[in-house]
Amino acid sequence: MERRVVISGCSGGGKSTLLEALRERGFSVVDEPGRRIVREELASSGSALPWIDLAAFARAAISTAISDWEANAEFEGWVFFDRGLVDAASALEHATGDRVLDELGRSYSYHRRVFLTPPWPEIYGQDKERQHGFEAAAEEYARLLAAYPALGYEVTILPKTGVAERTDFVLRMLEADESSDV
After folding, report:
1. Is the pTM of this model over 0.70?
2. Where is the signal peptide (predicted)?
3. Long-range contacts, stretch 37-40, CB < 8 angstroms, 24+ apart
4. Under 8 Å between Cβ of 115 and 161
5. Non-local CB neighbours of 112 within 8 Å, separated by 6+ positions
6. DSSP assignment, residue 109?
7. Homologous superfamily of domain range 4-181
C-alpha cells in the first residue's frame, strides 16, 4: 500500500497547522514545496515567485515535489505531504496551458486517498509568502478538487474543525483504508 499521503486544498485552509500536529504525533511530514521555494526566492531576490512568474514557480515546485516523492520512496510508515506533485502540475497547467498533469500525476502516485482543506475565510490569512487573496485561493481549490479525482484519487474534504479533531479524522480514515486493503 502506498503510504505517501497528500494534504492539499485551499491556501490558508489549515494544512500546515494540521501537518504540524501530525509531526508532533511522530509522523514524517514533508513541508510544502511552494513555501520553501518562495522563501529561497525572496532570500536571493529571485523571480520564480507565483506573483511574478507563476510558470517558473510551478516548474520549480514540480522539481521539488519529485525530489520529495523520491526521497520518501522507501519509508515504511505514513509520510504526509503538504501539497504534492499534482498541485504543482496543476499550477503549471493553469499558468501555461501545458498538459503535464496526467503524465506527472500518474508517474508519481500517492496514497489513493487525498485530503483537501476547503476554503475557510474565517481562518484565511495573507503573509509575505502567501500574497494572493482568498478568491485566488478558492479558485486553486476548485482546480485541485477536479484534478485529483481525474487522476483516480479518492478526495476527502477535511471538516472545518479544530486541529486535534482534524488530525484524528485523517488518522481514522487512513486506518480504515488500511483495514480495507487487508
Report:
1. yes
2. none
3. 37/61, 37/64, 38/129, 39/129
4. no
5. 2, 152, 153, 154, 177
6. -
7. P-loop containing nucleotide triphosphate hydrolases (3.40.50.300)
